[in-house]
Amino acid sequence: MAIPAEFTSKNEAEFISQMLVPLFHRLGFSIVVNYHGGREFGKDLVFGEIDRFGHIRYHGLQVKYVDSIGQSEVKTLIEDCQEAFANPFRHPHTNAEERINTFYAVNGGSISDQARTHFFNSLAHPYGGNVRLIDAKGVLALDRWAAANRSQTT
Q1: pTM
Q2: 8 Å CB contact between 77 and 66
Q3: How many angstroms separate the CA atoms of 119 and 4, rounded?
């Protein structure tokens, strides 16, 4: 599957700034920080939320903007995930050193079944259910959900 026509970004940086950052704000994440191109250590975006127990959870997100990710290309996402968990980030407001709790890999196109299988099998230990993959269909579904949820609250 190619990158959908709904995504008008020309590259990964635009996809992050024009689509993903606004989407995560609409989804209710209070802290959304763009580390793309800097010392990201596998995290293009870091976003945070307060869970139901009152604890802050941080999520790291690595973004790709290619038509498709296959089994051979997913190896870089596996390395990004390992880097993201291994390396802390600096909180933008407190300057405290923090770590992510969950890693998301997002692609503006598709992700093959073989790539998904290899990704999750490679990272099952030690990260378990704390790693996720989202393709273009998933991003569009989140965008529609955020829009519908926003109109309901209005």
Answers
A1: 0.93
A2: no
A3: 23
